[in-house]
Amino acid sequence: MIVPPVYGMVLAAILFVIGLAGLMIRRNMVFVVISVEVMLNAGGLGFISAGSRWGQAEGQAVFLFLLAVAATEAAIGLALVLWLHRRHKSVDSDSARQMRG
Amino acid sequence: MIVAFVIAGILSIVSTLLAVSRYSAVHALLYLIGSLLALAVAFYTLGAPYAAVLEIMVYAGAIVVLLLFVVMIMNLGNRRREEERALLKPSVWIGPSIVVLLVAVELLVIIVRGLAPATKGSYIPALAVNAVVFGPYIIGVELVSFLLLAGVVSAFHLGRRRKESIKQGVAQDDEQRRREAVK
User: Fold this and answer.
1) What was the ipTM of the complex prediction?
2) pLDDT averaged over consecutive 10-residue blocks of chain B (183 residues)?
3) What's this model's pTM, rounded to 2 decimal places?
4) I need a labelling partner for B158 at 20 to 30 A (CA). Which of A35, A75, B14, B113 fits?
């Protein structure tokens, strides 16, 4: 027996909100990247629940594309973290306030 | 199945909460792996085995390990943990948490009201998913390949070391070593 999709949507909403809270609270860039990953993942769970609701494969197809977006986001986010660490000796996102050069 | 989903969901919520609230980045990433594995179980019980497998392989296996590597490269020690503790005071997180709780309540009300009347999920095998991805959505696959290429190029550009910064880094390392020798 398959779980009703409403449960999946509720879990997706809760996880998305936790990711949003992390994004707003943390100033360490590593945790910002982690929070964005959590939010993307929650979005994927929403798509899968909706796909299960309508019995369509499109939900999981969009999840595949979302996976690629998350991978790209992680790669660029981490390159930015390393850049910040090398340039300012800190991973505090406020240390890059003036984006000059 | 519903019991499995509820257990996986609670595990995933708890470990995600721990992941965004730890002081140490390595601990946070380990909790994030736990959360992703629990979420894979949730995907399976929702009738999406293909997504569950990809969740474990790509998210837990590739993306989080990449994050772990970077955290290990930066070698954030105990001093950073103290800084993190100073940054994460209650006065900092209470405001955003209240706002976000309101958003959560709103989302849950919308979802439960909109979808509640007896819907039942369906099992979607990997074959159906791939038939869709490589059939009508083939243009999306091509666009994703462009996206990944753009990601590689920009990550390389950001991660590149210019000659001056290398010299500067070496000079700083030398200075640090000298100071330690003096001590």
Assistant:
1) 0.90
2) 90 93 87 94 91 92 89 72 75 84 87 69 87 92 94 89 61 65 63
3) 0.85
4) A35
